[in-house]
Write a structure and sequence with these properties.
Layout (H helix, E strand, L loop, with lengths): L10 H4 L11 E3 L2 E5 L6 E6 L3 H20 L1 H18 L1 H12 L3 H26 L2 E3 L9 E9 L2 E5 L7 H12 L3 E5 L6 H12 L7 E3 L4 H10 L2 E5 L2 H14 L3 E4 L4 E5 L5 H12 L10 E7 H16 L22 H14 L3 E4 L13 E4 L6 H4 L6 E7 L2 H9 L3 E2 L1 E5 L3 H8 L6 E4 L16 E2 L2 E2 L4 H7 L1 E9 L14 H15 L2
Parallel strand pairs: 6-7, 6-9, 7-8, 9-10, 11-12, 11-17, 12-15, 14-15, 17-18
Antiparallel strand pairs: 1-2, 2-3, 4-5, 5-21, 10-20, 13-14, 16-19
Helix pairs in contact: 2-8, 3-5, 3-7, 4-5, 4-7, 5-6, 8-9, 10-11
Bound molecules: nicotinamide-adenine-dinucleotide.
């Protein structure tokens, strides 16, 4: 199998039509057929790269890396700024590609693109200062006369493995800090949604990006494994199960590996909250990308006194939403699932909940659109149910009544996941205090989800939701190797610690330690 060239993969060439096939990506003779989830139509064909194909791509990226690093931060920023502007100018094609392969709403695709543009803007502005040599102050006696500085160097070739729900920002977007740090990058988008990532990589070259700096390895899990085997560092976004496999493989090679994994984000609604706003927020963020977002609200705990009213408001909101095939701006509110087999998981979670005593207040069945599930509200739920413990990743909002804040916090923390959480209250100070008790990487008060759209904020999960993360200055550090350079300024004088040892000098040194550390 030949390596994928970023130059010969224009969307037009890849988009083909064949309406008689089912709705999941399939591999046929080394080629992946990418299908629209709602119609089953083949919307693209891409290589299903084997290990040799991946190795060839990584070799190209490795050859290109010194030249890319040699452009310097300003040179790299200039390329990425041009890339950002071209992405916007050609947004029609990018949005079309994203919608064709995922069936997602125009608004969801637009948000994915906007996040990518914002991420590009952020890294081109902040990378310079973050990558500059950093003087390090030392205070101990052993640092006397020594000057230390930390330098940041690229790893070499960075691998980015992404999921199907936000394919562009979670592959190309995560590649940007690594690129700005002077790495070259090979992205491995999900086999379900590789087309928009390929198009974005094409646009990088069209914007004047040097060849082989940003490459795309298409294929499934086997391709991802081969990538981990070849690159110098890997960033993975996807499920907990795959994240564990990626970490184990990276561990074998002792390469840096950061993981952004699944979530089961709780929303805690207190009696003093603006209930109308909280209901609207929970519905908007529970059904974000049809619930197929790692930071979507996946379970809700509401103080008993306001539970009934809150549930009424949520149900009213959800019933007013329009489920239908995705189209242009504002056409519908919820579309079908991006990955059709996900409907089975959603259905199984709702069935399990109902069998254990939950009530379906609206939805609770497959939708009329192909590969869709009706937006669903469940009550009388508890933690014996899968919908409260496992990631549903679909349009389901289970709401549980709780006695008080302590019970809400205990249940919110009773999860293997720890990605994000939200607290809805009329008292922001109280919200902040509750935030500090939640075992998650991000807490929002009177809001949810939007924190992930802000590249200035670090985002990372606790517990099984991940290791490392994206966003904020830490992500740039993560994209680099660090080197400490220490220079002895008093060259010419013998050092206190050098051989040979003498009783007097050792005793003097001991006295000095006593004066410094023994008081
Ligand atoms: P997935 O784990 O099935 O696949 C993710 C990627 O890993 C795909 O590109 C896949 O081809 C690849 N892959 C599969 N097996 C591999 C292996 N053995 N080695 C290397 N790569 C392999 O996840 P998905 O179903 O595509 O995405 C949904 C999941 O992603 C959900 O759990 C969701 O919560 C999570 N997610 C997390 C975040 C976050 O930032 N924390 C963001 C979006 C999605």
């Amino acid at each position: 199998m030949d390596a994928v060239s970023t130059k010969d993969t224009t969307t037009e060439a890849r988009l083909t039509a064949s309406p008689d096939l089912t709705g999941v990506a399939t591999s046929v003779g080394g080629t992946l057929l990418v299908r629209a989830p709602d119609t089953g139509e083949v919307v693209g064909e891409v290589p299903d790269l084997d290990a040799a194909g991946v190795a060839a791509l990584v070799a190209r990226a490795r050859t290109a890396q010194p030249g890319w690093a040699g452009l310097g931060v300003d040179g790299r920023a200039e390329v990425i700024e041009r890339f950002r502007r071209l992405l916007w100018r050609r947004r029609g094609e990018v949005l079309h590609s994203m919608q064709a392969e995922s069936g997602k709403l125009y608004e969801d695709a637009l948000r994915d693109l906007a996040m990518l543009l914002d991420v590009a803007h952020y890294w081109t502005r902040v990378a310079g200062p973050l990558l500059a040599d950093e003087p390090l102050r030392t205070r101990g006696l052993m640092g006397f006369g020594r000057r230390s500085v930390r330098t940041f160097e690229p790893h070499g070739v960075f691998g980015m493995i992404g999921p199907w729900n936000l394919p562009v920002v979670l592959s190309i977007g995560d590649a940007l800090p690594a690129l700005m740090a002077g790495n070259t990058v090979v992205c491995k988008p999900s086999e379900v949604t590789p087309l928009a990532t390929l198009l974005a990589a094409d646009l990088f070259v069209a914007a004047g990006g040097p060849p082989d700096v940003l490459l795309v390895a298409t294929g499934g899990g086997r391709t991802g494994e081969a990538l981990v085997d070849q690159v110098d560092a890997v960033h993975f976004t996807g499920s907990v199960a795959t994240g564990r496999a990626v970490a184990a493989r990276a561990g074998q090679r002792l390469i840096p590996c950061s993981l952004e994994l699944g979530g089961k984000d709780p929303a805690i609604v207190l009696a003093d909250a603006d209930l109308k706003r909280a209901a609207r927020g929970v519905v908007s963020y529970g059904l974000l990308v049809g619930g197929q977002a790692c930071i979507a609200v996946e379970r809700v705990y509401v103080q008993r006194d306001v539970h009934e009213r809150f549930v009424e408001l949520v149900v009213e909101q959800v019933r007013s939403l329009r489920l239908g095939p995705a189209g242009g701006p504002g056409v519908v509110d919820v579309a079908g699932m991006i990955h059709p087999p996900q409907v089975d998981i959603v259905e199984a979670h709702v069935r399990d909940a109902v069998e254990r005593g939950a009530r379906v207040l609206t939805g609770g069945r497959r939708g009329s659109v192909e590969a869709s599930y009706e937006p669903t509200v469940l009550t009388d739920v508890d933690h014996t149910m899968r919908c409260m413990r496992e990631e549903t990743f679909g349009p389901v909002i289970p709401i549980m009544a709780v006695r008080d804040v302590d019970e809400a916090v205990r249940l919110a923390n009773d999860s293997e996941y720890g990605l994000a959480a939200s607290v809805w209250t009329g008292d922001p100070a109280r919200g902040r205090a509750i935030a500090r008790r939640l075992q998650v990487g991000t807490v929002t008060v009177n809001d949810a989800v939007m924190h992930a759209a802000l590249p200035e904020l670090p985002m990372g999960g606790w517990k099984a939701s991940g290791l490392g993360g994206r966003g904020g200055p830490d992500a740039m550090r993560w994209a680099c190797r660090q080197r400490v350079v220490q220079v002895l300024r008093l060259a010419g004088h013998p050092d206190l610690y050098w051989l040979p040892y003498r009783p007097r000098s050792t005793r003097n040194l001991e006295r000095l330690f006593g004066l410094l550390y023994g008081r």
